[in-house]
Amino acid sequence: MPTVAVIPHPNAPVELREVPTPELERDSALFDVDLSEVCGTDVYLQQGRLQGVPYPLVPGHVSVGRLSRIRGTLSDIEGRAFREGDRVTFLDVHGTCNACWYCLVAKATTRCPNRKVYGITYGLRDGLCGGWAEQVYLKPGTRCLRLAAEPETFMAGGCALPTALHAVERAEIAIGDRVLVLGSGPVGINVIILSLMRGALSVICIGAPMNRLAAATQAGASAVLNFEEHNETERWEWILELTNGRGADVTIEATGSPAAVVHAMRFTRDAGRVVVVGQYTDHGPLSTAAAFNPHLDLNKKHLDVRGCWGSDFSHFYRSAQITSDPVRAAPWISLQTNLSRYALGDANQALADVAEGRVLKALIAPR
Ligand SMILES: [Zn+2]
Ligand SMILES: [Zn+2]
Questions:
Q1: Rounded to two decimals, what is the model's pTM?
Q2: For residue 70, is pLDDT > 90?
């Protein structure tokens, strides 16, 4: 009987439950969790701010662990069969159909209506489907990846890494670009690392609080600014000084605040590009005071503004590759000092620490 941490319904504290070990279907597996992530999405899940979530729910959508039981065959994308005992991680997205209009015509699989996400849109009724648990049931068709990286190195990137990878891809960052990152949470930090890997000349970051801005500097940001201490005009002056008086070539918004989308547009140079990746939760429309001016902020600027939703297997695969490479993994090895571990029974504390920004990255270690 594995123990799991459950959000019973929105705004209720997490509680521990014991659930029966499932019968394994053909080509499925049981996964023993070593580490699972606590991210901003889990805070929103607990607050009931995501749509289409089936409570009760076991959170934890990105995890590392070992395959403890396999029934039938489970293979990686090179066709090599997994064995019991293999250290793996698995793509949290399951059931992307490769048969609908979005999958086949738009080639935008993150908008496939049939996709489900472990720990977010799969609830306890769907089985052992979240990582805040001793075990996860990997349904047939779950995409597993052999993990060569140390679990802590991979989790230092965590779910933010594939999200950030997708964002810098959408941003098409070119060699020599001056990049502005709004937000110094895990997605912002990973965007800084990956922008530099893509050849950015410099990356500057506006965020808060100071411990997260220190992590941004550690990740390679050449300058950071605390938005709590500087108004919009002061921020703009700071950016102009660092971008030859033009504004950022590319701005990536990773904050969760609707107003930051307008700032991203204003802080970008004419004919530059903005990628919005921080609006995973619906915080409602912009307030009148924060509304943008379509003429000045968008059309006249000849601005390219792009949304970025979720991530797919390619982003997850590249994340595992890059954190497994002895040279390329260096930024995430360095970020491991920012990991905070919690036992399954301390999940409420972990959620509170993430919500308050007291820790950069919280992990549940169920064993
Ligand atoms: Zn997450
Ligand atoms: Zn589809």
A1: 0.95
A2: yes
